[in-house]
Write a structure and sequence with these properties.
This protein is an alpha+beta fold and 361 residues long. It is 12% helix and 28% strand.
Amino acid sequence: MSGSLCESVPSTNEPPNKKVMRKAVVVLTRLPEYKVSALLPPTPQQFYIEFDSHSGSDSDMQWEPEGGSSDSDFSVSQDKRKTGKPTKSEAKRTPAPKTSKNKDNGDTSIKKVTDPAPVIISSAFSYVSNETTKTRPSMPQEEVKVDMVVLARRKPMRWQRGKIVEILTRECGRLKYKVSFEEKGRSLVSGHHIAYNNTPKLEQLYVGARVAVACHEHDNVFRPGILAELPSRKNRLRFLIFQDDHVPVYVGLPAFHLVCKPLESVLDDLPDGAHKSFMNKYLTDWPYPHLTQYSVGQSLNAEFDGVQQKCMVQEVDSSLILVVFQDNQHEEWIHRGSIRLQHMARFLELKEAKERKDAPE
């Protein structure tokens, strides 16, 4: 046996004691514009705390209301929609009942704790500048002529299809349109009470546009309303419209029509009341409307038949929630920023009080 031990050393071209230096290489990847925009924070607003919303809002802000109540002074209803079952992720967000134990007598009875107040957020609804506009596009409008088929107001919440049979000029210079309806009858209406029969073009649309939307319950019946959301990834590429009775609906492009000659301020076409005040606030705050954050299965109070009543969230669809009222099992969709929701009414009450307090004398 040999008296020397040999150690195997890996072969290398470099000297044994020389360190190998490696150059770092940085690879730059250009992000798409929408990702860059999504990373930008919203305009800072006092009275809020920024946070990441579980609803997918990339620029959401929150406020948790204190206790209190505020009743609305109006009542609305909407046709029922199919109720979807909660997803696993939604079920996880639903708070579970808590237990309490009386230390004195060892009572371990389960007591259901009141659901926590929801977060109030101010959500940036779009990331492209032309989606946030509230200004009517400056483009030529189709001329209203005799024999043109239009949608015209027959009653405050009932517009129907008809044909213009005569155009009258008043002494003041204002035009009136005599419309003969398909289902008998005639009406003499102003330009802001008729809508084009054709489907609008996307470039004509903006938040705040005056429209007439198809009624699901009746054929050839349309409801007047205001366009409140343009299609985006947040609302699954749909249009949100607030009807004049405060009912919110998500629809596709073929379901609504532009009013021919809207008033300078669309709010002037709404009757005075809670809905007009709500729309004024909504259009002022856009594109950061105030919304409540609810989970499926969460209990809350909402106005119905003129009073606050207990209900539960059945489904969340973008800016809307489907609720079922406890007393009569009535179901309807309510906007998450509606003043019918007790939490939102209380939030706005406190916010207005704070603004009055901070206002310079």
